[in-house]
Amino acid sequence: MNLKTEDTRPATPEDQELARKLEDQAALEIDLADRELRSANLRAELAAFERQYLHFVGSRYAELDEWKAQLAERMVSEQPGNQRARQAAREARARADETKNVAGEKSEHEPPSFQASPELKRLYRDVARRIHPDLTSDRDDRARRQLLMADANQAYELGDEMRLEKILTAYEHSPEAFHGEGPGAELIRAIRRVSQVRGRLAEIEAELQGLLRSDLHQLKMRVDDAEKSGHNVLQDMIAKVDEQIELAKERLNKPGPPPR
Question: Which residues constitute the domain of residue 22?
Answer without folding.
Answer: 16-253
